[in-house]
Specification:
Blueprint lengths: L2 H10 L7 H13 L1 H19 L4 H4 L6 H13 L6
Length: about 80
C-alpha cells in the first residue's frame, strides 16, 4: 500500500467502517511507515478537538443543496463558454 492510499483510508474510516482486508492492509502500512503514523495521529487529534468543541461535519456540510441553488448553478454552467457545452 502506498501512503496516498493510506491517507485516503485513514480519512474514510472516520465516515464508515473499512472492510477487513483494507483494515489489515492499513495496519501493516502504519506499522511500517512513520509518516503515516504521524498523519494518523494528527487526524485523531483534529477529530478529538472537533468533537470536544461540539463540531460535526454536518454542521458545515449539510450534504443537500437547495433546489433553487442547484438550478442557479446549472444555469451558470450552461452559460459558461469554458464549460465545453
Amino acid at each position: 500500500m502506498k501512503c496516498r492510499e493510506s491517507a485516503r483510508l485513514l480519512s474514510e474510516q472516520h465516515d464508515r467502517p473499512l472492510p477487513l482486508r483494507k483494515r489489515v492492509e492499513l495496519r501493516i502500512h502504519l506499522f511500517l511507515c512513520r509518516l503515516c503514523q504521524v498523519y494518523a495521529a494528527q487526524l485523531r487529534m483534529v477529530t478529538g478537538v472537533s468533537r470536544a468543541a461540539g463540531i460535526s461535519a454536518t454542521d458545515h456540510c449539510p450534504g443537500v443543496l437547495p433546489a433553487d441553488r442547484r438550478r442557479r448553478i446549472q444555469t451558470e454552467i450552461e452559460k459558461d463558454p469554458a464549460s465545453g457545452s
